Amino acid sequence: ADLDRAFGKMRRAGLSRSRMVNARAVVSGAYKWGRRHGKVSNNPTLGFELPTSTHVAKQTATPELDELLSILANANEHDSDLAPVLTLAATTGMRRGELSGLRRHRLRLDKAELSVEQAVNDAGGKVVTKATKTHKTRTVSLDPATVTFLLDHLEAMDKRAADVGLAVANDGYVFSLEPDCAKPMRPEFMTRRMRVLRKRMGIGDGDFDATIQALRKWTTTELMDAGFNPSAVSGRQGHTVQVMLEHY
Length: 248
Prior knowledge:
The chain is mainly alpha-helical. The chain has ten helices and five strands. β1 (107-108) and β2 (113-116) form a beta hairpin. α3 (65-78) packs antiparallel against α4. It has helices at residues 2-12, 17-36, 65-78, 83-92, 96-101, 144-163, 187-201, 212-225, 230-237, 241-247; strands at 107-108, 113-116, 119-121, 128-130, 138-141. The strands form two sheets. The protein has a three-stranded antiparallel sheet. The chain has a two-stranded antiparallel sheet with strand order 3-4.
């Protein structure tokens, strides 16, 4: 009865099915722990059916090329910390946490590629390094302009460190607010700065989606529209083919 009331309230509040699935997983996990330790005799979530969600997902459009270029131009002019993040996000489609967790020794610019093997999560204010969303390492090829951009960015970070008598280690983070790049730029910081950029540009909720996630969607959509094989695109973006085709 308690579960029925709780999930009924979630349904009336318009929460999505995925939110309710996550909530059920938390409760189920707690009861599994309770049974193992003799705290409860049964798990009431077994066989519990979630109510049908009334949530209607908000449809947002990814930016067109001219809109994307406007975002990057504004970032270059007004936010030197965020601009490099957005540039690499647009050309590679990497996730926010993956951008945060990217280290220098994972760049192979002589081969025009980089390796995505970890991500940073800072939910609840605690910075944690973890595996990628799919728990797989993937290689992302880079175009010549992106290679040049990264070389320039690394040189700028080296100069910033040298100005205060420090040096950036080989495993330093590509994006960092620390002079020696020893700590990653937090994903939540990226999101906050993106909000400031949107406000400065006058982009509201009714306009195109201007988030780091939107840059990832833009990259995937452009590759698909260009006729690249879905398997190759999904591998580059860290999706399964099924998930990619469902959302793009």
